[in-house]
Amino acid sequence: MAEILYQIMGRHRAEPLPERKPSWLKVRAPGGPNYLHLKQMMRELDLNTVCEEARCPNVGECWEHGTATFMILGDVCTRNCAYCAVAHGRPPKYDPAEPSRVAEAATRMQLRHVVLTSVDRDDLPDFGAWAFAETIREIKKGNPETSVEVLVPDFQGNVDSIRTVLEARPDIYNHNTETVPRLYKKARPGGRYERVLEIFRTAKRIAADIPTKTGIILGMGETNEEVLATMRELRTVDVDILTLGQYLRPSDDHIALDRYVTPDEFAMFRTEGSAMGFRHVESGPLVRSSYHAWEQVQAAGVST
User: Fold this and answer.
1) Handedness of CA 56, 58, 64, 67 (dihedral sign)
2) Residue 46 lies in a domain
3) How far apart are the first and last CA of the chain?
4) How far is CA 140 from CA 65, 143, 149, 271, in A?
5) N or C: the chain end with fewer CB closer than 10 Å?
6) Per-residue pLDDT for 22 more than 90?
7) Residue 9 pLDDT > 70, yes or no?
């Protein structure tokens, strides 16, 4: 066992990529009755989901269980991250009635836990913070027992925008780290790793009681040692919940897939993360930031 752990910890790069995806990455194509019902509802209410826009491999599973991650502020991002499938360009004008439509969908779906995310909106004065805050308020007004997790963009590190969202009292404040510091310029040119750390410092200063969460996608060229170092650094800014999943290249125009991370490696990251003090670590090939979000809340002991 010690020898196996040493081999995993010391691994920098896997063997050449196989022609087909490994068996642990195969999922059933979506198409069940609840999936189709939710898809129709989203179109009726003119809502977007990151499940569809980011081509999440778990969309069938999650929608069949009646859960979805709402993507507010439109479906066009002002940034062009090298790993992301969401369209980029000039976003349309924001619809201020969207928060009430999201709240209506949450009510109709009878959700106990709602996840809100968005594209980057660097074109807006507050970078979209009001939309997050208003959507939280609308959901809780009509569904007081429903917990709300926000997966926010970096707001360019703007403290007032971070405060605006936190003062609406989300139950979890999530911002994804995405990758290790060395790969930021290549994978996330519009972001800054140090800004991510400062976002979590700021969030804890403003609302120390609200749990923070982040996610990392693996397979873009990072080493296991770099992932572990990044995890340790995230604990220094008191991040509570961590997700780790496999990067899947959306198209030939996106950053190349470097390797398929094995289930044993994901298990190692989960074990190491727990030892570092994260309240919960969700780590696996198909894990995405919102995957099993309600289960993550329960496992982390978050009071909602």
Assistant:
1) negative
2) yes
3) 39
4) 21, 5, 12, 35
5) N
6) no
7) no
